[in-house]
Specification:
Blueprint lengths: L65 E2 L4 E3 L2 E6 L4 E3 L6 E2 L6 E4 L5 E3 L18 E4 L5 E4 L52 E9 L3 E8 L4 E9 L6 H17 L8 E6 L3 E7 L6 H8 L4 H20 L12 E3 L5 E3 L19 E2 L6 H4 L7 H16 L18 H10 L10 H10 L15 H6 L9 H5 L22 H4 L10 H5 L11 E2 L1 H8 L2
Parallel strand pairs: 4-9
Antiparallel strand pairs: 1-17, 2-3, 3-6, 4-5, 6-7, 8-9, 10-11, 11-12, 12-14, 13-14, 13-18, 15-16
Helix pairs in contact: 3-5, 5-7
């Protein structure tokens, strides 16, 4: 038998800015040897290990999203958002830096601490010298951090009485629950909490850069859910903890929307965080696109319309999604879509507000992000244009003919250059209406992009000729029959999930006490949550 495996390890190399791939294809010269094994079949072999096969289309593989670290440069300082475990005071205004999340900025060179609101007013140049914060005792005997005094009197931190901080209105610290403590053992009158013992772990259905996703059954009700498992050791960085908090908030917000995956509950153990979410049985669009290659226009229109409703809901709630891609669009058992994975979301965006974090999945990143510009909801409509193009054409709009033979054209930097500069060519096989809507979404200027003309931005989309046949009110009520219904034999049918996930062992690796000792559990206080609506439904069972 011909050696059928060329396993290419494509991994994140931040130094060379290469692409992180979450899908590792197994190649075979003999398609017959791949039955039930993989989807990457090419009638050739690579010229050498690590090189693509002739005719291989890289755009069909899963790619992981990531967030590039944001730095703020002022007067030579390089500020980075930080969370302070000790009480710290701003070197500019002398007030205490306190609050939830990343409360302030710290210069990574001279270690200067300031409020986020004060960092632009810093007029003292960075000394680029390592200055450790001075630690002194406050009136309550607790250690508090302050910056080393600077010569100018404006920057001196004098020994003086600081006012007591405002009372903590967030409630008392929530202890980490014993993972083996059953729900029935909770004190009378306390809110019901879940633990790992309440669920039967059935199968692995997905995996990302930080998390594993399992299909589970809630033992009490026999209902099936998905469980997203995140190791705390991987998210102890300040910005990582922020995205976990954001994902939880957006899951809560999304719970009542027909086209967004909602949250059942959250709980934790000393080593892991657990999101219990809706189980969407139809698989994701990436799985179906790898088999269909391209979709009929009416199918793509239906999915794009439901995605548009989901995005508009998030935008109305002040949330930029920032990670729309085939992998994150799920199909339910009826064929309706649901967006999932909210780790890249940005909250608190009001009309006219912008943000600037460089993040996303490389193939879907909007030009304004690559140019380093502030951006708003426009980036989601660009990503919808990329996704719609993939559904209609069966490939990415940024594929370059012959690029697979040139290693210099397979880098992330080259992809970004193509997104910024290449004229997007619409396949002639598409209808005039489809070509027009793609040109609208894929306009490199966000001011001219479809869906970005406030205040009637969404009306511009719903009124486009491409969507003329859509009854938007009926669609939002899920009264429009989907063009495709996934074949499912049972509630536990996993035929629509990639075997490279479902064939994995289900067990969680044993905890390492040495790793747990290094985790600051206070960072995860208050993570526990139970959806009150789902809770009341379960009480009726």
């Amino acid at each position: 038998m011909v050696d059928r495996t060329w396993l290419r390890k494509l991994f994140a190399d931040f130094a060379e800015a290469t692409v992180l791939w979450a899908y590792h294809p197994i190649y075979s010269y003999e398609p017959s040897s791949l039955i039930g094994n993989t989807t990457g079949v090419f009638p050739n072999v690579p010229s050498q290990p690590g090189m693509p096969c002739q005719g291989e289309d890289r755009s069909i593989y899963r790619r992981g999203a990531r967030r590039w670290r944001k730095l703020y440069r002022v007067n030579g300082h390089i500020f980075q958002a930080k969370r302070f475990n000790r009480r710290a005071f701003c070197a500019y205004c002398n007030d205490r830096i306190w609050g939830l999340g990343r409360q302030g900025f710290k210069c990574i060179q001279c270690k200067l601490l300031v409020h986020k609101k004060c960092h632009k007013a810093v007029n003292k140049p960075c000394t680029s010298e390592h200055q450790e914060p001075v630690i002194r005792e406050d009136h309550n005997g607790e250690a508090q951090a302050n910056n080393t005094p600077i010569t100018e009197s404006k920057w001196e931190i004098r020994e003086k009485d600081f006012p007591e901080p405002p009372p903590d209105v967030t409630g008392e610290s929530v202890p980490v629950e014993d993972p083996n403590k059953p729900v029935d053992d909770l004190e009378p009158g306390s809110q019901r909490q879940y633990s790992l013992n309440d669920f039967e772990l059935i199968r692995v259905i997905g995996r990302g850069s930080y998390a594993k996703v399992l299909m589970v059954e809630l033992k009490k009700t026999k209902r099936i859910y998905a469980m997203k498992v995140i190791k705390k050791a991987l998210v102890t960085d300040d910005e990582d903890i922020d995205w976990v908090q954001t994902e939880k908030h957006v899951f809560e917000t999304a719970s009542n929307h027909p086209f967004l995956v909602g949250l059942h509950s959250c709980f934790q153990t000393p080593s892991r965080l657990f999101f219990v979410i809706e189980f969407v049985r139809g698989g994701d669009l990436m799985f179906h696109m790898q088999r269909q290659r391209r979709l009929p226009e009416e199918h793509a229109r239906f999915y794009a319309a439901e995605i548009s409703l989901a995005l508009n809901f998030l935008h109305c709630k002040g949330i930029i999604y920032r990670d729309l891609k085939l992998d994150n669009v799920l199909l339910d058992h009826e064929g309706h879509i649901k967006l999932t994975d909210y780790g890249m979301c940005k909250e608190g965006i009001r009309p006219g507000d912008t943000t600037s974090t460089f993040c996303g999945t490389p193939n879907y990143i909007a030009p304004e992000i690559l140019r380093g510009e502030d951006y708003g909801f426009s980036v989601d409509w660009w990503a919808l244009g990329v996704l719609l193009y993939e559904m209609l054409a069966g490939r990415s709009p940024f594929d370059i003919a012959g690029a697979s033979e040139n290693p210099d054209q397979n880098t992330e930097d080259y992809l970004f250059q193509v997104i910024l500069e290449k004229t997007i060519r619409i396949p002639r096989s598409l209808s005039v209406k489809a070509a027009n809507v793609l040109k609208g979404f894929l306009n490199k200027n966000p001011a001219d992009r479809l869906g970005c003309h406030s205040p009637e931005a969404f009306v511009e989309i719903t009124g486009h000729q491409f969507f003329k046949s859509i009854d938007w009110d009926m669609l939002e009520q899920k009264q429009v029959p989907p063009p495709y219904k996934p074949r499912l034999d049972s509630e536990r049918d996993l035929a629509n999930f990639p075997p490279e996930f479902t064939d994995e062992p289900v067990h969680l690796t044993p905890d390492d006490p040495r790793v747990i000792e290094k985790i600051d559990q206070s960072e995860f206080e208050g993570f526990e949550y139970v959806n009150p609506l789902l809770m009341s439904l379960e009480d009726c069972v």
